[in-house]
Give the backbone structure.
Amino acid sequence: MSPRPILALTTGEPAGIGPELALDAARDWQGLDAEVVAIGDPEMLVDRAKALGWPVKIDIVDPERALPPRRDGHLPVWPVALKRPARAGRLDPANADYVIDTLDLAVEACRAQRASAMVTAPLHKGAIIDGGFPGFTGHTEYLRDACAVEEVVMMLATDRTARPLRVALATTHLPLSQVAGAITVDSLIRVSTILDRELRECFGIGNPRMLVCGLNPHAGEAGHLGREEIDVIEPALARLRSAGLDVVGPLPADTLFTPRHLDRADAVLAMYHDQGLPVLKYAGFGQAANITLGLGLVRTSVDHGTALDLAGTGRADTGSLRVALNVAADMARRAH
């Protein structure tokens, strides 16, 4: 292993902005204390760099061999071949297997300790599903299954340079009609325990304080607007407190995200995707990282999608990718 963390960067949906995010980052590695190796099709990356007029050299590297010294303007690549040629902005479900192959290589490299962490550029769920993976719901769930773990936690965090806002989710990519039924005492205990452990081990927080949202408006209004807080969330939090975790709640989500509460918290646990993430993305869109906790390896990602309308234009903002790379490097150093 290199003295600096090695970050395996999957280049995501080949028709999206993922390839050029990797290329743009390689133009100037300043500010990143890590080595980066991209995973993708070298010919596609060469063509995209030429089309953008960026003088980035693609260095093909054997995954079993050491990386060359990091240099601005060079992007080391572990090669994975496209199934069909890709055009910026035009999805082709035939490349679904290619995207999955890049993820599998990153997972395998982390497990074999050839990489310290994996960072993922955005993929397109629809293209993956249409390409032969009907049960695919996203990076988070796919990596959970690939790593053979029962439970993972999706957390987004704003830039490390300011006081970070960290929002974890009790449920991830579920229809809203299924959320209440998916939240149980046991699931909340598992998610909160993972969140507490990883805040300690990967973020260096000695005794994390976690604020927990209620599910219903006004946290159920003492049962008048729903009983999930009384029947599920409060019993789970009582058991967590008895185990020594510092959890506060359930709190109404519409007032939890205010300085009075957040200034005394290390993370927020929201009950569902669109309860917590709109607030975080308003506070730091393009300057936040998506983090999967509980995998047994470090994984971060960007906080945005494939942006097909920007693909090939050179106008995509690399801010979130740089945050994801820095967060992954910081987590890898602490985890190891």
